[in-house]
Amino acid sequence: MKRALLTAGIACFGFLSPAWAEFQDGLQAYYRLDFRTALREWQPLAERGNPEASYQLGILYYRGEGVLQDYAEAAKWFEQAAEAGDADAQYNLGLMYANGQGVARDLVRAHVWFTLAASGYADGTGRDWAIQDPTWAARNRNWSAAQLTPEEIAEAWRQIQEWRANHQTAERR
């Protein structure tokens, strides 16, 4: 919803912030398969905490587009975006924890990220174009829950509640 409002505001008033323009330049380069230019555009934005740019860097490193494939680096950028509430990054990070790609395999953490992503998609905060079917997050949440003990599920829910509490506080500032 927030992204849709931001996009509508930009379209209605005809202005672009420099960061938004840089992000769009990176996106256009990515669509042209000019991954090195996309990296140059997104890297400084991601380093300043832009979640969209962080997510896109995660994609570049995960796929090895314009950079050497590096799952640990992909996980780092997905985590930065996931912590900012990006549902797509949360989903991808859940996959990485479930598969042990770039991070130690941890089904509790996978369940946490899948649950947060499923909530984000339900709230409409996920990118429609990022994954084909946003219900995958809910399916993977259910799959990961079936792999966990009751104690592990309780730990996952503790982490989810802690994440939500921390992020609600940050939104109120």
List the helices and strands and how they pair.
Blueprint: H1 2-13, H2 18-31, H3 35-47, H4 51-63, H5 71-83, H6 87-99, H7 107-122, H8 135-147, H9 150-172
Helix pairs in contact: 2-3, 3-4, 4-5, 5-6, 6-7, 7-8, 7-9
Could you walk me through the main structural features you see in this protein, from its secondary elements to its overall organization?
The protein has 9 helices and no strands. It has 173 residues and is mostly helical. α3 (35-47) packs across α4 (51-63). It is globular and about 45 Å long.
Outline of the structure:
With 173 residues, the protein is mainly alpha-helical. The protein is built from nine helices and no strands.
Nearest-integer average pLDDT: 85
Proportion in β-strands: under 5%
Percent helix range: over 70%
**What is the 3D shape?**
globular
How many domains? The number is: 2
Q: First CA to last CA: what distance? A: 19 Å
| C-alpha Rg (nearest Å) | 16 Å
Contiguous low-pLDDT stretches (5 residues minimum) are 1-15
Main beta-sheet annotation: none
- SSE series: HHHHHHHHH
Structural class: mainly alpha
Helices, by number, come to 9
Q: List how many beta strands DSSP finds.
A: 0
